[in-house]
Design brief:
The protein has about 90 residues and is mostly helical. The chain has one domain. Helix content is about 85%, strand content about 0%.
Length: about 90
């Protein structure tokens, strides 16, 4: 799970540094492609921000956290299996 969340954060930060505005470099298709890997990081940040602003319930936050955990686990297993195969 840690490998998935770490790769998610790295992918999102690289995307924001290199692309910045998605409309310049392929628009939504590039954004959605990056979000497959970067999604857990973005979802957790949005859920934490909404909880701090009292825009969502604690139950919704923990549901989002559970989704992030599963998504990170799947990404981590994928990347670790690729690393072991190499």
């Amino acid at each position: 799970m840690t490998a998935g969340l770490t790769s998610s954060g790295i992918a999102y930060n690289l995307y924001r540094i290199l692309v910045g505005d998605a409309s310049k470099f392929g628009g939504k298709s590039l954004y959605f492609g990056v979000m497959v890997v970067a999604g857990p990081n973005v979802l957790f940040n949005n859920a934490a921000r909404a909880l701090r602003k009292k825009e969502c319930s604690p139950m919704a936050f923990w549901l989002a956290t559970a989704v992030v955990g599963y998504w990170s686990f799947a990404l981590g297993m994928f990347f670790v299996s690729i690393a072991l195969a190499l």
